[in-house]
Specification:
It is a single chain. By secondary structure, the protein is mainly alpha-helical. Helix content is about 75%, strand content about 5%. It has 15 helices and five strands. The chain has helices spanning about 5-10, 15-30, 35-70, 80-115, 125-140, 145-165, 165-175, 185-200, 225-245, 250-255, 265-300, 320-345, 355-390, 390-400, 410-425; strands at about 75-80, 120, 180, 305-310, 350. It is globular and about 65 Å long.
Length: about 425
Amino acid sequence: MSVMDAIMAQCRNTALIMGVIALIGLLLQKKNATEVVSGTLKTVIGFMVFTIGSNAMSAVVNNFSTIFNLAFGIEGVTTQVEVATALALDTYGTEVAMVFVLGFIFNLIVAKFTRFKAIFLTGQHFLYFACVLALVFIAHDCPFWVTTIGGGLMLGFFGAAMPTLCQSYMNKIVGADNLAIGHFNTIGYWFSGWIGKMISRVSPQKQKDSSEMKMPAFFQLFRDFVFSVALFMIVLFYVAVIAAACNGHLPEVREMAGADIWFIYPFLQGLQFAAGMSVLIYGVRQFIAEITAAFVGISEKYIPDAKPAVDCPAIFPFAPTAVLVGFVGSLLGGLFAMLLMVVFKSPTIMIPAAGICFFSGGTCGVFGNAYGGWKGAFVGSFIVGIALCVLPLILYPAFSALGIAGASFPNVDYNIIGAILDGILGLFTFGG
């Protein structure tokens, strides 16, 4: 390998790119040498930890996909955004990283000069949406500069603008106008809030708030994200393994299990997935925290009237029971959508993931509960749960052709905006 080839290879090392981004941000804030070195190294190490977790999760997803295909003869795809992101970063890390950092910069510019004042602080969701936008541009053979600048502009604009869609509901939930929702499922949250309003209009008497409900103690366990992911993956693995065994594919399952006993293998794989998820989330939080801190410091200095758009768990304490109602509603909606795919013989079956159902579904529950009580929480999250499973089918063929297979990007904003972008880019011809 020549020196130039080696340099170009390092330029595609996403961990180093993230480190350089953090370094620039820290230098712009005029941090001291210790903080600059510490922040830069933490960013690089955090991304490396993320890669370790993503590799562990990807291996489990590949095993599940193989067994699911043996069992049912169809392609089973989990709506696990972390796995899809890991696959995208592994192949298109440079493009995604550039869209990600330009998105932060354009978010600040839009907030500074337009009426959209949200500073999107949920860094991992910014990263996930950066992946979706980059992949759509890449799927249309767009040049690198079109992908990065176009993707960055869109990411920055929607990061500042989309939280505005839900602001009236946020004010109702929080009781003040000082916080925005920074989670790219805002169309889903707005819809769930609207459903709650419709229920309150149809039935004018005060709706029974979800806090008055008595939820089974078992559902309290799902507040622990790692537990919910582990349990859900264990159940999915057992369903696939038992179905494969019933269809005469037990020898293949035994071979995949290796030294493990085949009927314990699904249990271990579910735990392995949850362990990989824990590692991945730790890594994401570490490298995102350093980069986000750099941009927060800049925004506080130059955009004093900006409004922080925060992650969805920030509103969970305002309606904790509604979170559980939303989780159950979203999960049932996802399972219903999966059943529809089976009935209508979809070549790809999207499988709802516990994580997306808890966080996005739970937040839908809080928004639906704001005006519609527990009925709004359940109905809104159920319908959005269907959307979380069905909408990824639109972009999955294009992403799968790029090697991003076995997992998908489920949130509503990703798929509606991504599908519109896909349609627009389809009108143009790029490449040679």
